[in-house]
C-alpha cells in the first residue's frame, strides 16, 4: 500500500480549484491527471524579462516589464484591424499596446485612459512606433509585475494556456509534503543537490540545474532500484537447473557455422540455465545477426533436459515465421514444435493444448495466447521472448510468473529476451538493467553491404523506373511510407495514394500493408509477398519487426528524413538477407534540417546498428537541453537524454549498493527509497519485497 504521506500527490487533478470537465481533456492529453503529474510537469524553458524605468533603457525585441500611462484608444478602420492603446512611459516615449481579434473590450477595461499600469511583454517596432503586441501581463501592482521577470514556459496542449497551467502547477506544488531523503548522503554532499521538495519548487521557478539534476536523478534511481529488486527477487526464486547432453543439438543440420558471437552467447545461456536460480538474460543483436538459431539452441537444451520451451513473438506473422524457420532447422531432431496463436480455435487448438499438457509437444511458438490461463504445460522450463522492446519490465515479470508450472512444484522458468533494437549502452541499462546481457556484435560472414543512396524526391520517375527494372529480374522490393501518430490520417492517405499509383504500373504484383487493415487482410498480403506471389510490398512501418524475405533486395523509403536513425536502420535490415546485392533508396524532401541531413549521411556511411544507436542518441540529445523528455522512447519523463547519459550509471550503482545492503528496504534510507518507488510508480519493486 502506498504510504499515506504520498496520498495528496496521487489525488486527481479534477479536485483542484477551477478544474472542470473542459480542462480535464487537455490535461489528460498531457498525462496530467493527478497532482503528482502536475508537480512533475517541468517547464521547457523560462522567459527572462528585464524591468526598465523607461523605454530608452530597452531594446527592440527584448522582453521587458515597464510602467506606462494610457493616453488614447485607436480603433482600426476595418473590423479586422487591431485595436491600439497609445501609452506613454516616464520619459514621455509613446508605445502602442496592440490587440488583434476581438480583444478591444477587454483592453478598454484593463487599460483605462489616464491611468498607469505595469506591462510585461516583448518590445517591438511597427513602422516608426514602438509597440507591445498582446502584453503577457497587465498589473496594477508592481510586485505582481516584478514576479513575472522570470516566467516558466510549460509544454501545452490545445485548450490550455500558460496562465492556466501555471496556476494549476502552483496549486499542486502547495500540496507537496516533505519526504525523508533517499539519496545517499555522500553523493548529495558531493553534488550540492537540494532536498526533494525545495528542488521541485526551484525547478518551476527558474533555470536551476542542480534542482533539475536532482529530480532527474530521483527518477533514474527509482527505475534502477525497481530493476535491481526484480533481479534480486529473481535470484531468490527457485529455478530448474537444466543440463542438456547435446544429443539433439548434435542432430541440428545448420547450413552454416556459428559465429564467435553466437557461440559465446550460447555458452552464456547454457551456463545460466544450469544454475538453480532462473536465467534472466537479454540477447541483443542487430537485425540479421542470427538470434533465431541461438534461441533454438537454448530451447533444445531445455528439451534435452526433458523439459519444454516456449517462444513468444509480438505478432502473428512473426510467430508463423519463427515456427516455419524452427521447424525447418530442427527437422532432424525429432522435436515437436507447435504453433499457437489467438486465431486457433476448436479441435486443432484442443489438440495443441493436450500436447502441451502431456509433454508430447516440446516447443511451443506463438503470440500472447501461449500464456493464457487455459494453456497449461507439463514442464515449461524456458521462455524466450522475441522483440523484447515491446514489453515493459512489469510485463516481463508477469510473463515469468505465469510460466510457473512444473511437476516439482512452483518453479520460475528461465527467461531469454531477444531484441533487434540496438540501443545505446546507457539506455540498455535503463530498460534492461535487471538482466544480464549477451550481445551479438558480429555479423554472419558473407553479408554484402547494402548499397544505400539518398535520392531527391523530384527524381521519383527515375526511382519508379529503377524499381521496374529490379522487379523484371525476378527479385522483390519493399516500398515504405512514413506513418506517425500525430499525422495518421494524412500519412495513411499518402500511402494509399502511392499504392494506387504503383498499382497502375505493377498491377497485381503489388500489395499494400498498413496498421489499419484487418489482421486477416494484412496477413494474407504478407503471405503472398513472402511466398513470392506478390513482388512489391508497399507498407507503412509495420514491416519493421522481423520479416524475412531474402529475395527482397530493394527498399525504397519515402520521406526518409522523417524517420529516426534507429528506425531507418531497422527498416533497411529487411533487405540484404540473401545472396544478391541489395539496395536501399532513401527519398528525401526538399527542405532538410541539419540534423536530418546528418542522419541520412550516417545511414549511407555505416551499417553498424550499435554505432547508429549511439549517434542517434547524440543527435537527439545534443543541442537541446530539454524537450526530448516526452518523446516516449525512454521510460523517463523527468530525465532528459543528457541527464540519462550523465546520471544513470551513478543511479544504477547506487541502487545496487542499496539493495545489497538493505534488500528488504527496511532501514531508514530503505524506507525513504520505498516512497521513491511509489512516487515514480515503480511499485512492482515494492510488491516483490513483500512477496519475500
Ligand atoms: P535476427 O537476429 O534478425 O533474428 P535471424 O536469426 O533471422 O536474424 O538470421 C538472419 C539470417 O542469417 C537467417 O537467414 C539465418 O539463417 C542466417 N544466419 C544465422 N546465423 C548464421 C551464421 N552463423 N552464418 C551464416 N548465416 C547465418
Ligand atoms: Mg529475428
UniProtKB/TrEMBL annotation:
GO molecular function: DNA helicase activity; hydrolase activity
Key word Nucleotide-binding present: yes
Residue span(s) of domain Helicase ATP-binding: 272-440
Keyword annotations of the record: ATP-binding, DNA damage, DNA repair, DNA-binding, Helicase, Hydrolase, Nucleotide-binding
SMART domains xref list: DEXDc, HELICc
Domain Helicase C-terminal residues, every copy: 459-618
Recorded superkingdom: Bacteria
Protein name, as recorded: Probable DNA 3'-5' helicase RecG
Gene that specifies this protein: recG
Amino acid at each position: 500500500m502506498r504510504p499515506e504521506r504520498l496520498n495528496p500527490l496521487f489525488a486527481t487533478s479534477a479536485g483542484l480549484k477551477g478544474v472542470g470537465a473542459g480542462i480535464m481533456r487537455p490535461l489528460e492529453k498531457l498525462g496530467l491527471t493527478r497532482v503528482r503529474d502536475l508537480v512533475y510537469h517541468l517547464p521547457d524553458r523560462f522567459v527572462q524579462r528585464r524591468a526598465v524605468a523607461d523605454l530608452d533603457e530597452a531594446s527592440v525585441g527584448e522582453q521587458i516589464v515597464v510602467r506606462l500611462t494610457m493616453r488614447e484608444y485607436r480603433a482600426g478602420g476595418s473590423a479586422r484591424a487591431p485595436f491600439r492603446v497609445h501609452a506613454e512611459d516616464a520619459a514621455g516615449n509613446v508605445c502602442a499596446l496592440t490587440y488583434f481579434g476581438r480583444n478591444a473590450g477587454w483592453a478598454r477595461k484593463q487599460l483605462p485612459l489616464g491611468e498607469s499600469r505595469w506591462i510585461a511583454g516583448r518590445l517591438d517596432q511597427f513602422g516608426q512606433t514602438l509597440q507591445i503586441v498582446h502584453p503577457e501581463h497587465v498589473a496594477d501592482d508592481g510586485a505582481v509585475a516584478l514576479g513575472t521577470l522570470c516566467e516558466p514556459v510549460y509544454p501545452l496542449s490545445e485548450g490550455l494556456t500558460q496562465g492556466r497551467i501555471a496556476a494549476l502547477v502552483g496549486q499542486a506544488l502547495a500540496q507537496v509534503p516533505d519526504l525523508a531523503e533517499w539519496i545517499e548522503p555522500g553523493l548529495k554532499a558531493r553534488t550540492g543537490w537540494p532536498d526533494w521538495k525545495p528542488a521541485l519548487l526551484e525547478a518551476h521557478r527558474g533555470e536551476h540545474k542542480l534542482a533539475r539534476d536532482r529530480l532527474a536523478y530521483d527518477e533514474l534511481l527509482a527505475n534502477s532500484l525497481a530493476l535491481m529488486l526484480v533481479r534480486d527477487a529473481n535470484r531468490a526464486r527457485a529455478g530448474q537447473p537444466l543440463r542438456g547432453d547435446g544429443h539433439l543439438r548434435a542432430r541440428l543440420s545448420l547450413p552454416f557455422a556459428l559465429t564467435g558471437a553466437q557461440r559465446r552467447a550460447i555458452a552464456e545461456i547454457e551456463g545460466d540455465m544450469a544454475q538453480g536460480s532462473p536465467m534472466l538474460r537479454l540477447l541483443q543483436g542487430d537485425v540479421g545477426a542470427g538470434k533465431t538459431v541461438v534461441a533454438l539452441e537454448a530451447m533444445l537444451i531445455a528439451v534435452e533436459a526433458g523439459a519444454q520451451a516456449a517462444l513468444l513473438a509480438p505478432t502473428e506473422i512473426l510467430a508463423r515465421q519463427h515456427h516455419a524457420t524452427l521447424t525447418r532447422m530442427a527437422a532432424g531432431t525429432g522435436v515437436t514444435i507447435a504453433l499457437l496463436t489467438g486465431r486457433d480455435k476448436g479441435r486443432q487448438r484442443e489438440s495443441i493444448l493436450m500436447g502441451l499438457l502431456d509433454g508430447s509437444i516440446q516447443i511451443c511458438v506463438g503470440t500472447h495466447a501461449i500464456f493464457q490461463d487455459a494453456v497449461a504445460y507439463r514442464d515449461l522450463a524456458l521462455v524466450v521472448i522475441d522483440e523484447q522492446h515491446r514489453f515493459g519490465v512489469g510485463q516481463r515479470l508477469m510473463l515469468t510468473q505465469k510460466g510457473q508450472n512444473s511437476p516439482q512444484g512452483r518453479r520460475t522458468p528461465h527467461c531469454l529476451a531477444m531484441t533487434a533494437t540496438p540501443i545505446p549502452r546507457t539506455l540498455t541499462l535503463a530498460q534492461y538493467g535487471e538482466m544480464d546481457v549477451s550481445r551479438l556484435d558480429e555479423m554472419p560472414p558473407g553479408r554484402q553491404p547494402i548499397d544505400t543512396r539518398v535520392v531527391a524526391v523530384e527524381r521519383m520517375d527515375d526511382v519508379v523506373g529503377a524499381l521496374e527494372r529490379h522487379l523484371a529480374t525476378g527479385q522483390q522490393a519493399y516500398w515504405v511510407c512514413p506513418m506517425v501518430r500525430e499525422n495518421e490520417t494524412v500519412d495513411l492517405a499518402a500511402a494509399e495514394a502511392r499504392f494506387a499509383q504503383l498499382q497502375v504500373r505493377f498491377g497485381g504484383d503489388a500489395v499494400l500493408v498498413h496498421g489499419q487493415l484487418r489482421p486477416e487482410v494484412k496477413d494474407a498480403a504478407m503471405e503472398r509477398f513472402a511466398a513470392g506471389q506478390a513482388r512489391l510490398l508497399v507498407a507503412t512501418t509495420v514491416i519493421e519487426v522481423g520479416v524475412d524475405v531474402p529475395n527482397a533486395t530493394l527498399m525504397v523509403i519515402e520521406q526518409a528524413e522523417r524517420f529516426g536513425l534507429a528506425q531507418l536502420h531497422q527498416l533497411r535490415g529487411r533487405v540484404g538477407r540473401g545472396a544478391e546485392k541489395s539496395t536501399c533508396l532513401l527519398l528525401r524532401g526538399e527542405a532538410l534540417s541539419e540534423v536530418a541531413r546528418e542522419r541520412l549521411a550516417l545511414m549511407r556511411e555505416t551499417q553498424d546498428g550499435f554505432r547508429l544507436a549511439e549517434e542517434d542518441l547524440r543527435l537527439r540529445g545534443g543541442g537541446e537541453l530539454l524537450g526530448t523528455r516526452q518523446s516516449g522512447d525512454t521510460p523517463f519523463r523527468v530525465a532528459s537524454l543528457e541527464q540519462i547519459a550523465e546520471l544513470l550509471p551513478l543511479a544504477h550503482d547506487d541502487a545496487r549498493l542499496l539493495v545489497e545492503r538493505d534488500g528488504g528496504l527496511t532501514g531508514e534510507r530503505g524506507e525513504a527509497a520505498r516512497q521513491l518507488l511509489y512516487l515514480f510508480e515503480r511499485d512492482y519493486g515494492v510488491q516483490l519485497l513483500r512477496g519475500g
